[in-house]
Q: What sequence folds into this?
């Protein structure tokens, strides 16, 4: 009996082994890739004067991949901090919350350019795909489109006919115009890492010069007009009066869409201009939604739509959801797309506003929320911290409002004097000054500054 049982066991094991060899279990499916980040392409020339070119190639590859609706692509401002930084793929993936990373190099030699890209599973640090593309500078957009299509194929994303068309019809470029355009982007995006107001103005001024140079060399390039629109818009309120720069931003954005209606950034700019300068919320919503249809990974379009939903639509929950989408696309620099604390403050959700401000160290948001909640000592302490860190008149006006609401009208009036002194020399948003007077209970001055804001088309 024992021998018989042993024979049965051996035969059974043999059958199982044979079955497994003939019908092996399917390999576990690789995790789906639905989000990725393009890390800064390495400049193989090692010439610091060529950094703008490598960064520009990174920027354009991000833009091309972001046109693929099924992919969640991290924005440029959140990947640039990794330039030259030694960090593992899993570490970066955790920080950016992505499934995969694109690493690569770019080498420009004379009128030739070579791009090497590789796709990395961000969790296992396993290289999934790599390819090199080479061509002339005139065909650089085609090279980038080829990279984007190859990546889409590798992660098993089926392009829609519209996306396929946008990635299959690249225009040739004038090399000198393209160089000026990339230099403009390099300067414009430099403001993301600079807190100093004077430096910001200098960066934007240089960007405007380069975009004008690019347009002079190639008046048919819609992207240069879109960059020019972004540059003028970035100057509004903080540096220049809206009446001075917003018409220029609008003209540039309209020209961009006239030349190429698929430039999402131009539609996002038109949305901001319609909302904050033309006071046309219906048009603003149309432009933001058009931008997102073209580029679902464009943070400024999500935040702009959120501002529309909050300020004109009266739909705070949807507005906050859109702002959070912008934050997810730009996790390392979320405040550049608007303050979640402010989005929560306006519908009077003060405890939530306070929590959001505390999470990012926003002393201004904390001061206002504390004041509304009646926690005066904490409001004053937060306002004290905030005023030690800024001379910006808009920021000072916010702190003055918090002081007045917290019962320190003496401090509020002192700051108000500083703001009004600046207003005699430069543009200061009248709306923010009016809010201080409202908190001080001075209705006459509040209405006077509101009227001034209306005449100046303050945003």
A:
């Amino acid at each position: 009996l024992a021998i018989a049982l042993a024979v049965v066991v051996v035969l059974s094991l043999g059958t199982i082994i044979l079955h497994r060899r003939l019908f092996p279990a399917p390999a576990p499916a690789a995790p789906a890739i639905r989000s990725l980040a393009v890390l800064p392409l390495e400049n193989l020339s090692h010439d610091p004067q060529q950094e703008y070119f490598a960064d520009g190639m990174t920027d354009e590859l991000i833009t091309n991949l972001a046109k693929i609706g099924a992919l969640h692509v991290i924005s440029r401002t959140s990947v640039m901090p990794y330039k030259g930084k030694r960090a593992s793929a899993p570490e970066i993936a955790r920080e950016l919350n992505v499934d995969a990373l694109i690493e690569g190099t770019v080498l420009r030699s004379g009128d030739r350019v070579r791009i090497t890209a590789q796709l990395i599973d961000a969790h296992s640090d396993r290289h999934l795909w790599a390819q090199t593309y080479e061509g002339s500078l005139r065909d650089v957009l085609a090279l980038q489109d080829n990279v984007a299509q190859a990546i889409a194929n590798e992660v098993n994303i089926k392009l829609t006919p519209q996306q396929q068309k946008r990635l299959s019809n690249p225009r040739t470029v004038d090399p000198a115009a393209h160089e000026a355009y990339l230099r403009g982007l390099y300067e414009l995006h430099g403001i993301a890492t600079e807190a100093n107001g004077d430096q910001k103005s200098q960066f934007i001024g240089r960007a405007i010069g380069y975009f004008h140079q690019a347009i002079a060399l190639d008046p048919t390039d819609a992207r240069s007009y879109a960059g020019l629109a972004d540059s003028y818009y970035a100057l509004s309120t903080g540096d220049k009066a809206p009446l001075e720069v917003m018409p220029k931003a609008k003209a540039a954005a309209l020209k961009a869409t006239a030349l190429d209606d698929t430039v999402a950034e131009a539609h996002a700019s038109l949305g901001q201009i319609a909302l904050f300068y033309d006071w046309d919320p219906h048009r603003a919503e149309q432009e933001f939604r058009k931008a997102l249809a073209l580029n679902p990974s464009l943070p400024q379009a999500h935040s702009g739509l959120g501002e529309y939903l909050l300020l004109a639509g009266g739909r705070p929950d949807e507005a906050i959801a859109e702002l959070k989408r912008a934050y997810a696309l730009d996790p390392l620099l979320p405040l550049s797309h608007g303050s979640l604390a402010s989005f929560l403050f306006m519908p009077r959700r003060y405890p939530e506003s306070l929590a959001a401000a505390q999470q990012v160290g926003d002393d201004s948001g904390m001061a206002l929320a504390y004041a509304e909640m009646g926690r005066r000592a904490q409001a004053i302490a937060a306002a004290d911290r905030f005023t030690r860190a800024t001379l910006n008149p808009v920021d000072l006006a916010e702190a003055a409002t918090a002081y007045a609401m917290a019962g320190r009208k003496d401090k509020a009036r002192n700051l108000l004097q500083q703001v009004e002194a600046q207003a005699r020399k430069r543009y200061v948003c009248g709306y923010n000054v009016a809010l201080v007077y409202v908190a001080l209970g001075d209705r006459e001055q509040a209405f006077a500054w509101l009227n001034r804001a209306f005449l100046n088309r303050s945003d």
